């Protein structure tokens, strides 16, 4: 007689950056019920420490924190360090321009308050399903960096002006680094 052991799946870790305590408790409870392992930061300093010293599968980030920090600054700092952990902005700042700013800075998703927890959970599951090697907003090779969201190229930090065709070719080649590509 033998027994079948269940397959062990990777434990998913989420960082919630939310300063409103009542809302944070509700979100943390819901995430716990769903089986997510969570950490909670209420300000930008704690959030940055968590992000710099831990690996998370998702960061849920409020924009307006009590210490006066905009969550966009935290997301910007993550992306500047090539930290491509998926970020969901969860915020009351829900105008179209706010959502565009958040997504252009490097957030992967943007959900306005008030929200339904089922939708937040579905968005988390959608981000977790993405392959680990999916292309982030920045691609680099040596001194060349491409910001995919802004379609900008820099060489050693200096802007490079390219035609649409040149940009498309460079983007394609950098996305396919190490792969032989045909002339076509």
Describe the fold and architecture.
- The chain is about 35% helix and about 20% strand.
- The protein has about 180 residues and is of the alpha/beta class.
- The protein has a five-stranded parallel beta sheet, with helices on both faces.
- The chain is elongated.
Beta-strand portion reads 15-25%
Give the N-terminus to C-terminus distance in angstroms.
Answer: 59 Å
Helix content: 25-40%
**Helix- and strand-based class?**
alpha/beta
Tally of helical runs: 6
Number of strands: 9
Mean pLDDT: 84
Q: Can you write the helix and strand succession as a string?
A: EHEHEHEHEHEEEEH
Low-pLDDT runs of 5+ residues are 1-9
* Principal-axis shape: elongated
Order of strands in the sheet with most strands? 2-1-3-4-5
Reported for the largest beta sheet, the result is:
5 strands, parallel
| Rg, alpha carbons | 19 Å
